[in-house]
Structure formats: C-alpha cells, structure tokens
Amino acid sequence: MYEFEYHRPSSVAEAAELVSKADDGALMAGGQTLIPTLKQRLASPSDVVDLGAIAELKGIRVEGDAVVVGAGTPHAAVAGSAEVQGAIPALAALAEAIGDPQVRNKGTLGGSIANNDPAADYPAAVLGLGATVTTNQREIAADDFFTGMFETALTDGEIVTAVRFPKPQRAGYAKFPNPASRYAIVGVLVAETSGGVRVAVTGAGSCVFRASEMEQALAGSFSAEALDGISVPADDLNNDLHASAAYRAHLVSVMAKRAVAAAQ
Amino acid sequence: MTITVNMTVNGKDVSAEVEPRTLLVQLLRENLGLTGTHVGCDTSQCGACVVHVDGESVKSCTLLAAQCDGGQVTTIEGLADGDTLHPMQEAFREHHGLQCGFCTPGMVMSAIDLVNRNGAPSETEIREWLEGNICRCTGYHNIVKAIDAGAKSMGG
User: Fold this and answer.
1) Residue B125 in contact with partner chain A when CB distance is under 8 A
2) Are the Cβ atoms of A3 and B59 closer than 8 angstroms?
3) Selecting from 3.40.980.20, 3.40.50.1950, 3.30.390.50, 3.90.420.10, what CATH number does the domain A170-262 have?
4) pLDDT per position as a tens digit, A50-82
5) What pairs with residue A197 in β-bridges?
6) Within an 8 Å CB–CB cutoff, is residue B19 touching chain A?
7) What are the pLDDT digits (tens) for B76-112?
8) Helices (H), B1-139
9) What is the CA radius of gyration of chain B?
10) Architecture of domain A1-56
C-alpha cells in the first residue's frame, strides 16, 4: 500500500467536505474492495475517508411499501434482517450469497453499488427491483445509476446514503458463482413490480443490464417456460478465463429460469 | 505521518502509533506480538487471519487498524481461560480438527462466530459457513466434526 492520510468522520456532511478538499480522495465503506485494491497498489489515493463510523448510514427500515436500507449496512445485516426477509426475501437471499461470512460482516450495500463491479450481486438487486438510490445530493433511479464498468452516475464527492427498494409482488435471484470468489459469473434477478416485470443481469457484461426480451415474455406469463427459446446476444458479453461469452449467454437463460422458479 | 489508535485487545487496553495504512493483522502481529493470527493468502480469501472485532468475525488482513479504533478485538490468544481451553479449541484438539495447524486459529475464530449466531448448526450450515476459511491440508472433515462438537459444548 502507498501512504495516504486517513479520516474517520462521524457525519455524511463532514465526509463530503473531507473528500472534496482532498487532492485525490477515496471514500471507503467496508473496505472489502478498496483495501485489496490498495494492497495491490492499483490505487493510490492521497486521502482515505472512512464512512464506517457514520451512524446515519446504517440500518434498515420499512417505509410504506418499501424497504429502505442504509448505505453503510453490511451484507450480513441485510441477510439476517426480519424486515428484509419478510418484504423482499430475494434481497435477503442475494445478500446471504455474497462472498463469505467475514466479507459479509464488513462489506456494505453502498460500497458495492458505488463501486459497480460488473460481477457484484447488489447492482442486480437495485436495477431488478427498480430501487431508488439516495445520495447526499439527490435521488437517482436505478435505471440511471449504473452507467458502465465500475462507473455510476455519482459525481465527485457524492455519497450514497440509502437505497429504497419498493416491495415487489414477487422476486427471485439466481446466480452461477465463481467457485473461488463467489462473485457472479452470471446472476439474474427477476421481479414482478407495480411498474411491470424487470429482469436484471449481472456478471455477464461490462455492467449490469436489463434483458428486455425476457421482461416482455414474463409479462405475458410469469413462468420459467415463458423464457423457452429466449436468450441474450453473446456479442457484448464478457469473455475471460472464467467463462466464454457464449457460455455466459447460455447461463443468463438458465439463471433467469431458476430465478423465476425461486421467485416469491 | 502516524496516527494513534486505541482499542481493547483480548480484554486489555492497547494504544499504538501506526501509519494509516497499517492493517489490523500487522498491528496484532508486529506491534503486539500476537502471532497466533496468521497471514496466509493476504488477499482476503483464506481466512487464516480471522479475528473478532466487536464480536463479529472479520479478516484482519482486509481491515485497517484505524478502522478498529475504539473497538473490542479478540484473537485466538484471548479465548482460553488460563490453562483451560475454550470449548471450541478443546473440540478441535479432541477431534483432531487440524493437520499442519496453519489455518486453525482462523477456523476456530470463524467457528465461534457461527455458533454465536446459530447455536445448533447443521453439517451443511457449518460447511457453508467455512466458505471463507481454506485448509490447505484439506482436513475439512475433522474440522466440521470439531465445530459440531464445539457448538454442543458451547451450548452446554
């Protein structure tokens, strides 16, 4: 790790000020991605602003027909939350399958979506459930939030504070994990929402995306059979040592069917 | 530039001057001499470095010491009561839940966090929980047996 200055603010306002004043500041939530990146010297921020001590970022609450998860809430807390399990079981199950227990104790929802790793699980939940991302400056619809590989709509100094997940009629998540890292080689979240059926795919491409042809088929009949013969084009999918693009395209259809079958 | 971190380690108040980039595992091993916490992969995969911070298992190679300021840290050295082993340590000895022993401290710390959350884990739940702990001797079978026995004695 290169040297950096460390800050541990106790409020979002203080954190935003610290990161905006730094030459090249980095925000750190649970640190489960940033610290390994720093250790490999793949990043060299002048300042690390640790969001871990900010109480207002933590916690889960039900507000009407939505579950609001604080950005600093660790995956283990989402997985174990009675509120989440009751309202959106697919979200609890998704959180329970991230990484390993120790990573789930530290890694956070806000950190995951702000990083927008192409193989992360949470982007599929946020996009698939049609969630709204709240920051210290505004609200951002999921469809506008994820803009590319490791890229989001967040501007410099903008901090995710919470995500509002509207409760779906039903939703399911299925992933084919990398056996070493548990990152998604392909993960698909399907949801029947008040705004229609949504299908979000992570791991397969450079950024989470919606599979519109599958959404139309499931809008006609929310069943695994409705997806027979429907696949996403392999052209733009990831092609690496873990899986070829053609195999990933095949997995998208398989995982989508499993997610529909698991939906509740 | 250094910063001061204060924490409780195995029940004792500790204060140390460290660089901000110091990892928790470096503080434990190099500043405090608590070498029971091991560094295996150093990439947050193997779990040899698992300790408890505020009662939860974490990978101390993927945590800055500064993040634990004000926290309660427990390492493998903090489990036994004098010469009396913690029930989970005793179960690992009784069931030969180790071969070379390198992964053992992390396995024991991880297992205790599991039992704290789920007092009667099934064999499947134990195996799933060990996702983040790798035994390079592949001695998982006896580790699972040891955790099952340790869970029962912790409950009793």
Assistant:
1) no
2) no
3) 3.30.390.50
4) 999 999 999 999 999 999 999 999 999 999 999
5) A192
6) yes
7) 999 999 999 999 999 999 999 999 999 999 999 999 9
8) 24-26, 87-94, 104-117, 123-129
9) 15
10) 2-Layer Sandwich (3.30)
